[in-house]
Design a protein that fits this description.
six-stranded parallel sheet, alpha/beta
Length: about 400
């Protein structure tokens, strides 16, 4: 039996949730939006940055005992490997370079004990939010998750392809990649809650296409196809945003300035990044030669900007349809033909932009993820959860019975 997760889903009582983590914010706002979703579900928060000194000193087990009745624990702390704590002072300095941390060094030193305590809990369902590079993960780590029957919120098997390093030679990152996670999600599919990215309500923009400053933009890391597209467009008289903030931030980072742990600099970067998208009529992105499901696939349409991309096998699954809510480009050399046509047909372009934004709001926003997780968690607590998948933009939960 399959439960289709739509807006008109029946009301389900929330399981009692404990969110156990270290409180940080990152350049990527996904973490912040997950906290909003989990708060929407009535969760209690525990961990460095969330809890008082006294609560942390008492420990996780005591906190659960005093505030008991939890059905679910959600955490990302399994990502914190043992070697992070070998030389705590040194690793803490490295740790805070890429995040704005709301906790102290002394609280950081408690993370290992909290993480280990979660693994020892057997009477509460454990859900791990997997958020790091899934093409560079060790089997020993995945086997530990499987052994402990951990449920995982992550990119599901529909969105991960088996890779060969030789197919990625044009990408700078193509070093030491593996298919461990690909193999894992295929054999462990029944415990996977299949999504990762979330778009916040504050990321939706409503300015019309005609009044936008730029014809086109390419944001983020310049993967091979992004680089080729940008190179072609620059030869012609189209308006593009200057990517000066990428260069400026890169130079500051190389000089040792901790820009990604500085709250003001981090938020300024996000603002400049979003500005270039919502002031563009069209914006190209892709997931590199590895076809990774990057956040920009959702960020661009949310800004009422028309997404241009080379479609992957999973595009239709999450709701994208060519010339309906995005524009497909088969070859990077086709980009000029696409521009010449669509920039002359702004009314049709506006319709595509509106359809794209509607898809993201209804299926991939904070509100949508709240409903999707609510239904998934209830099935997990009832021991009825048997995996999930996407079809035509709808998140579906598979029921054991």
């Amino acid at each position: 039996m399959i439960i289709k997760d739509k807006k008109q889903s029946i009301q389900i009582k929330n399981p009692k949730i404990l969110y156990v983590d270290a409180y940080n914010e990152y350049l990527n706002p996904t973490e912040k939006h997950y906290l909003t979703v989990i708060k929407n579900l009535g969760a209690t928060f525990y961990g460095p940055g969330f809890s008082t000194k006294n609560e942390l000193e008492l420990g996780l087990r005591k906190f659960i005992e005093l505030n008991g009745g939890f059905d679910i624990i959600i955490t990302t702390l399994f990502s914190y490997e043992d070697n992070l704590f070998l030389d705590s002072k040194k690793t803490f300095i490295s740790y805070i370079k890429n995040r704005y941390s709301f906790h102290t060094y002394e609280e950081f030193c408690l993370i290992k004990n909290i993480r280990d305590a979660i693994f020892e809990i057997k009477d509460i369902k454990i859900i791990y939010r997997f958020g790091f590079d899934y093409y560079n993960v060790e089997n020993s780590f995945l086997e530990k998750l499987e052994k402990n029957n951990i449920y995982i919120i992550t990119t599901g098997k529909q969105f991960i392809k088996q890779i060969e390093n030789k197919s990625l030679l044009s990408e700078k990152f193509a070093q030491n990649l593996n298919n461990n996670f690909y193999d894992f999600v295929h054999r462990y599919d029944s415990n996977i809650i299949s999504f990762y990215h979330i778009i916040g309500e504050d990321e939706f923009k409503y300015n019309n296409i005609e009044n936008r400053k730029y014809d086109f933009s390419v944001q983020g890391i310049l993967y091979d196809n992004r680089k080729k597209i940008l190179k072609q467009i620059k030869k012609y008289n189209y308006t593009l945003p200057v990517r000066w903030h990428n260069t400026f931030y890169s130079l500051l980072s190389r000089a040792g300035f901790p820009i990604y742990s500085n709250y003001i600099f981090m938020n300024l970067y996000q603002l400049l990044f979003k500005y270039n998208i919502f002031q563009s009529k069209l914006s190209f992105t892709d997931g590199s030669q590895a076809d990774v499901f990057v956040r920009k696939f959702l960020e661009i349409p949310a800004s009422r900007t028309v997404l241009v991309s080379k479609p992957t096998e999973w595009f239709e699954a999450i709701g994208f349809k060519d010339k309906i809510n995005f524009i497909s480009i088969k070859k990077t050399s086709d980009v000029l033909d696409i521009f010449n046509y669509w920039l002359r047909n702004t009314q049709d372009l506006q319709t595509i932009a509106d359809n794209g934004q509607k898809l993201i709001y209804e299926n991939h926003s904070v509100g949508a993820r709240t409903i999707q997780l609510k239904n998934s968690f209830q099935k997990i607590v009832d021991n009825e959860y048997f995996g999930s998948y996407w079809e035509d933009g709808i998140f579906n939960v598979v029921n054991k019975s």
